[in-house]
Design goal:
This protein is mostly beta strands. It contains one helix and six strands. It has one domain. The protein is about 15% helix and about 35% strand.
Amino acid sequence: MDSPVIVNAEVDEFYKQPMYYALGHVTRFIPEGSVRIGLNLEQGQDDIRLTYSAAERPDGAIAFIVMNRYVMSNPASKQTLQCFAGVPM
C-alpha cells in the first residue's frame, strides 16, 4: 500500500508510512503558492530512472526535487529522494 497514512478505525490507531515522511520532506521545499515549471532531460538521457519536478517558489527561488528509483542488485540499496532549493532569481 502506498498511502501516507493508514488508519485502523476499529482500534483507533493510525500508522505513518514512509510516503508520509517523503511528502513532508518535499513540502518543506515547495511551499503553498509555488508554481510548477517544466524540465527537460538532455537527449540520450531518457533511460535514466529518475522522477523529477521543479517549482518556482513564492520567494522567487527554484526548488528541484529528484527521486532516484534505481535500486541496484545490492539488497541494502534503497530509493533516494533529494530536494534542493536555489537562491531567488
